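To: structure subgroup
Subject: Chain for Friday's discussion

All,

I'm putting the inputs and outputs inline so they're searchable in the archive.
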Amino acid sequence: MSFELTILGSNSALPTSNRYPTAQVLDVPGRCFLIDCGEGTQIQLRRNKISFSKIQHIFISHLHGDHYYGLIGLLSTMNLLGVTCDVHIYAPSELKTLIQPQLDFVRGEMSIKPIFHPLNLKKPATIFENKTLEILSFPVKHSIPTLGFLFREKQKQANIKKEMIKYYNIPLAEIKHIKAGADFKTESGEIIPNAKLTTPPPKPKSYAFCTDTAFHPSIAETIKDVDLLYHEATFLEELRELAEKTLHSTAKQAAEMAKLCNASKLIIGHFSSRFKKIEAFKSEAKQVFENTELALEGKKFTI
């Protein structure tokens, strides 16, 4: 299984002429997950040739406008296009109160069916699960209740060595037990350890989304060893006092989080519009965590 992340918006509260508020799409084979939905999200979906009909799961981190103002427009357009599907919206419970009146005002029967899933704002919780994927929400530290999201592939079973099947004449009925971790007992009573019969499965892929948040070390355990980490970096260290006052992070602090949780790769975004050029963010972060990239509109990251 591969994960492909597309950045739709990388800016903080105020959009610029070339940077949009926060929105991302994570494409896991068979499903597209929209993460936050700032103003202009549907335009960015068009530009990146992402079909609206694929957006059936939407995750809203918190109720500051730059993270959800694009939602009613997106849902309205999906309805106008005649998209017929359930659209699951995972968000703080107040979101439904905010946008339901607008949905009720839509004339005629809606082709889509929004289904709201209120999230636990106090502790980590599993909010979506199927045979191959698990999605967790977890609280971060911001001026209003805010959640991060962890997308994690489920651990695959071990691979049984074909030559061992033949050598020990392993019955078909035993193979599934061995893949699940069992040892094998031969007809003579010899116990063959599982490690000799199998090769370990690949490490499950994972992606963590952390915005908006002050530097919050306690989340490191939740996202430990993540393959790809997105962490907000609204400010540079020169404005660290402002970051602390507004409960945001600097590029250096985002890098410190990547190091603390042992991430493989870091993406930084949610840049303040006061910065016209953002290369300095990458330079600052790389001093602490080398494998750092900028969240740029249209950029894709593959795990």
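Points worth raising on Friday:
The chain has a mean pLDDT of 95.
The domain at 4-156+202-302 is CATH 3.60.15.10 (Metallo-beta-lactamase; Chain A).

D.
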